[in-house]
Amino acid sequence: MYKVILHKNAAKYYRNADEKLRGRITTAIDTILEDPYYHVHIKKLEGELKDLYRYRLGNLKDSL
Q1: Is 47 domain-assigned?
Q2: In 3-state terms, what secondary structure has residue 43?
Q3: Which one of 3, 21, 51, 56 is CB 3.0 to 4.6 Å from 17, fit for a cystine?
C-alpha cells in the first residue's frame, strides 16, 4: 500500500480549491495510490530529484 503526503502549501491549496478542482486533485491522488510509478501523467524526475516522481494535473492557474 502507498501513502500520499501533501506539502503544507499543497494541502492549503486543496482546502481553498473549488469543488471541481478538489475532485480533480482527489482523482489524481487516487491514481497515485493505485500505482505511483506508471500513468500517463506520472514522470520520473532527473538530477538531484532522481528518486522522485511528479504527477501533472494540468493548468491550475485559473482554477482558484
Answers
A1: yes
A2: strand
A3: 21
Kindly tell me the sign of the dihedral angle through the C-alpha atoms of 4, 34, 28, 43: positive
* Residue 34 in domain: yes
Nearest-10 Cα torsion for 31, 32, 34, 38: 100
Please indicate, yes or no, if residue 20 is contained in any of the structural domains. yes
58 dihedral zone (left: phi>0; alpha: psi -120 to 50; beta): left
pLDDT surpassing 60 at residue 41: yes
Among the listed residues 24, 7, 5, the one whose alpha carbon sits nearest the alpha carbon of residue 64: 24
Q: Give tens-digit pLDDT for 6-32.
A: 899 999 999 999 999 999 999 999 999
